[in-house]
Amino acid sequence: MLRLTVKQSNALRPIVNSVGFRGFHASAPREATLKELEIRLKSIRNIEKITKTIKTVAQTKLNRAQRAMELAKKYQTVSNEFFEEAGTQAPKEGKTLLIACSSDKGLCGGIHSSISRLVRKEMIDPNVEQNTSLCVLGEKVRSQLYRYYPGSLYLTFAHIGGASPSYEEALQISSNILENANEFDRIVIVYNRFASAVSFETVMKNLYTRQSIAESPNLFAYEASSEVHQPLMEYAFTNAIFAAMAEAHCSEMSSRRNAMENASKSAGEMINKFSTIYNRQRQASITNELIDIVTGANALG
């Protein structure tokens, strides 16, 4: 079989040489380049259509997310005012449960990476890392943190971020967390706070625990018995989770819209660039063919 291949290649060699003599090699690279540019332009135009579509969808979801965020802030404001008047202080030391609030969705810039960076910054001290367990909402940050702290993942929640979070969803998540959080002295949540349509801020917030509520110096003014400490803590915790999820979702939609807008602009710039190159190459090819025709006509004439 090998010998047959060699014989065929030797037999074809004069044909290839004769074709090259006729100028085939001069035109083949140019035609191939034009074909490659056509394929690349088509691919970039398809990408531009996708990014523009995602941007439009993200803009629509952002409007809904902002309304949901304002509703969640009302719950959080009432809760904060109550505990501020009661003089409640969230614990700042002890065995810690750190909740990282993200989602399962990508294509939104560095919004998930900012969460994992702040978590890693908090756990850079080995003593803190040893004394901290992680609860992660969303697959994106979970996969990032698992590379660094596989033994610290305590709870994870998937299917987060498909739609604007509801209070029922926050209640379900908070109930699952509190069922497994009795051993912790301190609970912290890390999330992206919505600043504007073009920016967000990654923050860390200490949450109230049952013990901190029981030790509130001004709680007696409400004539509250010890039986209400646990419901108060659950109420405050659910409100905090709901507000964090709502702000994180709003920040994600804003970041995704901005990322897709930038991607669409970049795609447009690339289309203009390659269109110019394509037109230049095509014009050069046509010019060379005209020169060949004129030269041949002069030779015959």
Please give a quick description of this structure.
This protein has 301 residues and is α/β, with parallel strands linked by helices. Helices cover 66% and strands 12% of the residues.
Explain what the structure shows.
The chain has helices at residues 2-21, 24-86, 111-122, 126-130, 139-148, 167-179, 210-214, 229-300; strands spanning 96-101, 132-137, 153-157, 186-196, 199-207. The protein has a five-stranded mixed β-sheet, sandwiched between helices. It has a domain at 60-256: Pyruvate Kinase, Chain: A, domain 1. The longest helix is centred in the last third of the chain and has 72 residues, at 229-300. Helix 5 links the parallel strand 2 and strand 3. Helix content is 66%, strand content 12%. The two termini are 52 Å apart. By secondary structure, it is an alpha/beta fold. The model is unreliable at 1-32 (pLDDT under 50). This is ATP synthase subunit gamma.
> Number of helix segments?
8
Helix content: 55-70%
| Percent of residues in beta strands | 5-15%
Average predicted local confidence, pLDDT: 85
Instruction: Find the CATH superfamily of the domain at 60-256.
Output: ATP synthase, F1 complex, gamma subunit
Report, as a whole number of angstroms, the end-to-end distance.
52 Å
- Look at the structure and give the CATH class of the domain at 60-256: Alpha Beta
Subcellular location: Mitochondrion inner membrane
Subunit structure: F-type ATPases have 2 components, CF(1) - the catalytic core - and CF(0) - the membrane proton channel. CF(1) and CF(0) have multiple subunits.
Pfam family, one: ATP-synt
Main location: mitochondrion
